[in-house]
């Protein structure tokens, strides 16, 4: 037996790691584009997150997603509804809404129980498969909302168990990045929410997301280590771009949730100021993803950039015939399809990479190439002066990000793998056992 050389098992026989999760937040006006994406067979993600205000607007999309065995997660919009700038007429019309922003007393006692019941009924009656619990944006570990939210989560859980016993209840924790980085406050919050019934924890960290610095990303990764104590799947909400991929690569979280070129950072500062009625009604247009630069451009700017020279078109136009068979024309004219396919593919590649090798893949396939591309394109003479200024600022950020993450990768010790969130088919299979 000492002469036997044990060859690696064939790839098909090897135990596969659970896939990393991706949930896409649906913008107000993105439902039609997403219906086209689903019709074209693009489903390499876990599910969609729908704002409760747009339940009827997105009903066809929800029906199609459910038919295709995707999760459809309800966001009850309670974070925004408790602020002067986030409260809208559409939010006020929800069964748990008021004509003014919510206050903590609105979720206390009998009134709080009634709101919890209405939210539970709404999520079940409208056919959602998961619920983001009705929590609120915290200012610190001593915020009055924290204990109130935990109590309400208990009431929602009780109501859900009566109506839909297997529906997952998610705890969305929304805190400022300063609180997230403060070890004492972080531990106090973890100890408190350990009492709240939930099946997963989604982190919404204020002023973190697609444009995060390398230093901020490293701090986020280190802070997530404490949340492992809860023993629940962790998902980084509103975490897009290179920073979101970094959270997955370093094993900080098991999934991401963000919008389709929108909602890639959690920046609720606007909620704290009254918003004109004209701003409340409109949606934001989908942008175009330039993956080689990890940049999002308005369609007009993207077209001008990609058509500025043959060199730019060759290096930065999408050549993937699955999402953009017509090249840059499809990339600009169908930005939703291009983004969903590209982002899903990025996360699938990380999922297929063993945890011990993900950091190297992240650095070699994303951080370094993107940094090099941004540096190179900043000197292209064909680019407009305005875009060149944007790219030069991006170049400085990309260089610093690369340096910070290169150093962090050298000192970081890969943790034990987290239990990632389960896809809807995996969860339903588990319930049948």
Structure commentary:
This protein is of the alpha/beta class. It has 2 domains: 18-274, Aldolase class I (TIM Barrel, Alpha-Beta Barrel); 291-411, no CATH class. Helices cover 47% and strands 12% of the residues. It has helices at 31-39, 59-67, 78-81, 89-92, 109-125, 144-163, 177-181, 183-193, 214-227, 241-249, 277-281, 299-306, 310-316, 328-333, 335-351, 355-377, 385-411, 424-432, and strands at residues 21-25, 47-51, 71-75, 130-132, 169-176, 200-206, 208-209, 234-237, 255-259, 265-266, 288-290, 295-297. Strands 1-2-3-4-5-6-8-9 form an 8-stranded parallel beta barrel. Strands 7-10 form a two-stranded antiparallel sheet. Strands 11-12 form a two-stranded antiparallel sheet. The chain is globular and about 65 Å long. The protein starts with 20 loop residues before the first strand and ends with a helix. The model is unreliable at 1-9 and 11-15 (pLDDT under 50).
Top keywords for this entry?
433 residues; alpha/beta; TIM Barrel; 2 domains; 8-stranded parallel β-barrel; two-stranded antiparallel sheet; globular; disordered N terminus
Give me the secondary-structure topology.
Layout: E1 21-25, H1 31-39, E2 47-51, H2 59-67, E3 71-75, H3 78-81, H4 89-92, H5 109-125, E4 130-132, H6 144-163, E5 169-176, H7 177-181, H8 183-193, E6 200-206, E7 208-209, H9 214-227, E8 234-237, H10 241-249, E9 255-259, E10 265-266, H11 277-281, E11 288-290, E12 295-297, H12 299-306, H13 310-316, H14 328-333, H15 335-351, H16 355-377, H17 385-411, H18 424-432
Parallel strand pairs: 1-2, 1-9, 2-3, 3-4, 4-5, 5-6, 6-8, 8-9
Antiparallel strand pairs: 7-10, 11-12
Helix pairs in contact: 1-2, 5-6, 9-17, 10-16, 16-17
